């Protein structure tokens, strides 16, 4: 019974105030990171303002591990823009260049075909079964700027579960 | 305050902040550059102009492309991606852009060039509207920096048209 008494004593001696201060500080850090992330989502108008390049299909322009800054404006989608899009049923976004645009007279809706700079053929193989073109609602944003190498942190964290750290879910899930 | 952990943390934070600042300044310096590119495209020959079995028109043509894009390069430029797109209007679509050819220019020395090539990508319409169609050929370029903001612009060359009948 002696060790129960010791455990109770050691619990009583933890300074509640210090513990609470630490918990609140941690909460503040996590919350301000979340605020910055959501604020960026508002400003850039895109669900995911920053993405990490995961494949080599846009080399030598974008290498695996680069970070892209996205922006989504109401401007129409035009050939040559680098867009990030989601295929129905796949969760990983793809970053490729638009090579064909067909915009309808009446509705203003667009059909868009994309291709990775380093790929031989266009992306029709990646699209869903029977899908020939992308529409505007598939596109999450246009790439407007980039930073090299910084994305390796995210790649290491998501691909090596041993080092996985609990960050606000948005940052990891959307990459 | 003097343990190894604290010092390493302070050092890393400082290093990352300075690096981020350098990236921003590098990107801002790109704005000082005022580019003055020039380009010319001639269509040498229409090799093939037929309706595909599925129904859409297809064109194969040979182009002479000459351009001088050296003024686009700055010290912060990694590469310039250029492509030629045919742009035209049809009854159903207010704008069609079809990329015909593209290239990556990795360095300033290679930015002044002349090339004769047939279209790399298939010039296929969204229908059967290409007979006698007038179209523009636009040379687009996309300056991809070593770090920072990307710039894109284009030169529009108009006055090209396709034959009235299938070849």
Automatic annotation (TrEMBL), chain A:
It is a single-pass type II membrane protein. One of its GO terms (cellular component) is signal peptidase complex. Its main location: endoplasmic reticulum. Its EC number is 3.4.21.89. InterPro entries: LexA/Signal_pep-like_sf, Peptidase_S24_S26A/B/C, Peptidase_S26, Peptidase_S26B. It comes from the Eukaryota. The chain crosses the membrane at residues 19-40. GO terms for biological process: signal peptide processing. Residues 37-114 form the Peptidase S24/S26A/S26B/S26C domain. The keyword Protease applies. It is found in: Endoplasmic reticulum membrane. Keywords: Hydrolase, Membrane, Protease, Signal-anchor, Transmembrane, Transmembrane helix. GO terms for molecular function: serine-type endopeptidase activity; signal peptidase activity. It catalyses: Cleavage of hydrophobic, N-terminal signal or leader sequences from secreted and periplasmic proteins. Catalytic component of the signal peptidase complex (SPC) which catalyzes the cleavage of N-terminal signal sequences from nascent proteins as they are translocated into the lumen of the endoplasmic reticulum. Specifically cleaves N-terminal signal peptides that contain a hydrophobic alpha-helix (h-region) shorter than 18-20 amino acids. NCBIfam families: sigpep_I_arch (TIGR02228). Belongs to the peptidase S26B family. This is Signal peptidase complex catalytic subunit SEC11.
UniProtKB/TrEMBL annotation, chain B:
It comes from the Eukaryota. Keywords: Endoplasmic reticulum, Membrane, Signal-anchor, Transmembrane, Transmembrane helix. The keyword Endoplasmic reticulum applies. It is a single-pass type II membrane protein. It comes from Gossypium barbadense. One of its GO terms (biological process) is signal peptide processing. Belongs to the SPCS3 family. This is Signal peptidase complex subunit 3.
């Amino acid at each position: 019974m002696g060790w129960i008494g010791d455990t109770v004593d050691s619990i009583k001696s933890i300074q509640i105030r210090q513990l609470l201060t630490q918990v609140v500080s941690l909460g503040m850090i996590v919350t301000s990171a979340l605020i910055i992330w959501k604020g960026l989502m508002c400003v850039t108008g895109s669900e995911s303002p920053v993405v990490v390049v995961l494949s080599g299909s846009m080399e030598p322009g974008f290498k695996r591990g680069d970070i892209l800054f996205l922006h989504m404006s109401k401007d129409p989608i035009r050939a040559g823009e680098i867009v990030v899009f989601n295929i129905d049923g796949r969760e990983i976004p793809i970053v490729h260049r638009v090579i064909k645009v067909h915009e309808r007279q009446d509705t203003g809706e667009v059909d868009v075909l994309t291709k990775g700079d380093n790929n031989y053929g266009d992306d029709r193989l990646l699209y869903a079964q029977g899908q020939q073109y992308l529409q505007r609602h598939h596109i999450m944003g246009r790439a407007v700027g980039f930073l090299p190498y910084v994305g390796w942190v995210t790649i290491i964290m998501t691909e090596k579960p041993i080092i996985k750290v609990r960050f606000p879910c948005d940052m990891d899930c959307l990459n | 305050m003097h343990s190894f952990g604290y010092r390493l943390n302070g050092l890393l934070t400082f290093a990352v902040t300075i690096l981020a600042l350098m990236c921003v300044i590098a990107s801002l310096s790109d704005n000082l550059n005022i580019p003055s590119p020039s380009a010319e495209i001639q269509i040498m020959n229409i090799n093939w102009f037929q309706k595909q079995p599925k129904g859409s028109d297809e064109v194969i043509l040979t182009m002479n492309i000459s351009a001088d894009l050296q003024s686009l390069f700055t010290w912060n430029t990694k590469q310039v991606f250029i492509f030629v797109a045919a742009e035209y209007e049809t009854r159903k679509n207010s704008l069609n852009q079809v990329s015909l050819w593209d290239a990556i220019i990795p360095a300033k020395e290679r930015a002044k060039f002349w090339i004769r090539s047939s279209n790399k990508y298939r010039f296929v319409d969204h229908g059967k509207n290409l007979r006698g169609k007038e179209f523009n050929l636009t040379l687009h370029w996309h300056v991809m920096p070593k770090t920072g903001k990307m710039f894109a612009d284009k030169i529009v060359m108009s006055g090209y048209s396709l034959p009235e009948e299938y070849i």
